[in-house]
Amino acid sequence: MSIRVLLVDDQSLVRLGFRAMLDQQPDLDVVGEAGDGAYAISMTRALRPDVVLMDVRMPTMDGIEATRWIVESGSATRILVLTTFDLDEYVFAALRAGASGFLLKDAMPEDLVAGIRTVACGDAAVAPGVTRRLIEAFAHHLPAGRASIDDRLDQLTTREREVLGELARARSNGEIAQRLHITQATVKVHVSRILTKLDLHDRAQVVVFAYENGVIRPGTGA
């Protein structure tokens, strides 16, 4: 079954290039294009793509606001944002808005295709090392000593809190399994339950949630 993709970028030549690249993949189907965030929202509502390839900087409505609208609407569509710089503050804002990951606009074709497939499968297209750098670089955006902690944390078991802490450090399932002396299959079960209980889309949002709620503090994630 093909992965349905919506291309969103204010530059038609960029969209044309991405379409030409993705059309070569038998499992990817570009179902539409949009030139700004507002149109992206209406196109997502009408076409119900699996993945939106979203530029962050656009006129009328940027990709961050469009991402927030799409995610808060309850849509099952995943958002993969595109940026020029891997430590662009827009990336952090996009992840907080609900994006499932980000890629650089000059990413290799195979990385772009892999990112779309990863996001479509429900995982986050953000490499662990990049996640660590991103969180550390923009730690000043996070509330220090937050007065009220999200009560969804109370739903987690002790083991799930341990796994959450490892996820916040952007560790892979294999690394988590090794550190907690459990199997990778068990890690997957815990991750699934954490996402459900916290009402989060994927690991990218787990990292942001954990930092915002004091599960781990910037500077201690290595």
Task: Explain what this protein looks like in three dimensions.
The protein is an alpha/beta fold and 222 residues long. It has two domains: 3-126, Response regulator (Rossmann fold), CATH 3.40.50.2300; 144-212, Winged helix-like DNA-binding domain superfamily/Winged helix DNA-binding domain (Arc Repressor Mutant, subunit A). Helices cover 48% and strands 13% of the residues. It has helices spanning 12-22, 37-47, 63-72, 89-97, 109-120, 128-137, 158-168, 173-180, 184-198, 203-212, and strands at residues 3-8, 28-34, 51-55, 78-83, 101-104. A five-stranded parallel β-sheet has the order 2-1-3-4-5, sandwiched between helices. Strand 3 (51-55), helix 3 and strand 4 (78-83) form a beta-alpha-beta unit. Helix 7 crosses helix 10 (203-212) and helix 8 crosses helix 9 (184-198). The radius of gyration is 17 Å and the shape is globular. The mean pLDDT is 84.
List the helices and strands and how they pair.
Elements: E1 3-8, H1 12-22, E2 28-34, H2 37-47, E3 51-55, H3 63-72, E4 78-83, H4 89-97, E5 101-104, H5 109-120, H6 128-137, H7 158-168, H8 173-180, H9 184-198, H10 203-212
Parallel strand pairs: 1-2, 1-3, 3-4, 4-5
Helix pairs in contact: 2-3, 3-4, 7-9, 7-10, 8-9
